[in-house]
Input
Amino acid sequence: MTVQAWTFVMVGLSFALYIGVALWSKARSTGDFYVAGSNVHPVVNGMATAADWMSAASFISMAGLISFMGRDGSVYLLGWTGGYVLLALLLAPYLRKFGKYTVPDFVGDRYYSQLARIVAVVCAVFVSFTYVAGQMRGVGIVFSRFLNVNIEIGVLIGMGIVFFYAVLGGMKGITYTQVAQYCVLIFAFLVPAIFISMLITGNVIPQLGLMGKVADGSGLYLLDRLNGLSEELGFNLYTDGSKSTIDVFFITAALMLGTAGLPHVIIRFYTVRKASEARISAGWALLFIAILYTTAPAVAAFARTNLLKTVRFEQNGELTDVKYEDVPSWFKNWEATGLIKFEDKNEDGAVQYRGPKSEIQNELTIDPDIMVLANPEIAKLPNWIVGLVAAGGLAAALSTAAGLLLVISTAVAHDLLKGAIMPTLQEKQELMAARIAAGVAVCIAGYFGMNPPGFVGQVVAFAFGLAASSFFPAIVMGIFSKRMNKEGAISGMIVGITFTAAYIIFFKFISPELNTPDHWLWGISPEGIGTLGMALNFIVSLSVSALTSPPPDEVQTLVDDIRIP
Output
């Protein structure tokens, strides 16, 4: 069968599975809709959390970014993995013991203020929409290549699927759907990685293949071969970084701290029965996440090696650029999507792919988001594996998109309507409001998926920066500081997210031509500015809190109670 036929089979079977699970686990109460009745088994919740956590950025974009950035791409591995550990150990059990459905719920009650709740709702919606834009973009990329539709149509199809099981099943439906999606995405990520590792290095374990020798008799290690190929084409050494140390630190910190403030991940710890099970499910989730995250650097190196060998080959002892008429079919298939662009600037018919250190003009533009999806085709693997990877990419994007849309709907229905505007709202009315909010959110998310502000990984990095600058200080000080009051928390959240959002909007939308290290504040990129926004949040919160009256005694007692095991 053709790639397209296999893709229809794999995607069709996976979608049928998701819809079947959603129908089986339909939410029938607000408890089911928001937190799946708080009776999910820790192992099941760990698997669902891993799927929720590993978005299109993890599956599609992370290895692609590493393949192009080399060592600099490690900021995503370090930041996202370290951030999850931080969340699991520092925050999740305490928030679970607090016993509320959402982060705005925690902020509103801990800081004894409806205004604090509303500010938290605004932050949650803003962060979630930024994050979900990356997921819908990932869905569009998968559909545009493998089903031969444009990205906009692909996004619309993804919107329909997410709308069905997020709006129908709520957290209960999403939880069990995400378990199925984890199985699909991890299988789809590992199978091609294992095959390609065997082809390139002869090692069945990709992680060992990354550190091993190339299976061509040369005796060279894979990374040495990749460094050589990169230098020959005028790129930086793959194992060297080009980003400044301060920017690497700030991006990594923003991703770590943003993880600990992401509402769609935090809410997963409310779906288990008690705080001890929250810790257990966090441990299982880390194991399930590590399977993909330790494989991603190997996938990146394999993809980069195969790409460089595709555009340049050895002929009569000399390296020669491949002629455009001789490029493999995968190249032209992806070119049709607009995610690979070839411009024959010197009109010699050859595809010249060069880095910034080369004197020869670069004629090839490649979107990093295609590398994982194109990897099986580049390596000439069977068509069924190509279709499987497409299904895995969709599973990763849709699982996170569903979690984010649930955060948006609960923020609007539970925190804003029920918690602040209409406290007498009945359960059925609240459930209907949540479903309507989810439907509206799907439509807005689809728009941002069609008009994203950057690569999938970049967009997600912006979301993490916004979460770090708004939620992280409020949650940490809400748990560990009895002196932090509502005035300090509200001021900090507003200053943190406003500064971070303004910085990102300026460099990505208002003046993109200035988006270079020479113009960044202290050399900090928009992806890393959330760390500085978080620092401003802490400074403002602590300063305002010190100048205003302390929280009521009952709130200080509540803080003590949260920390008792």
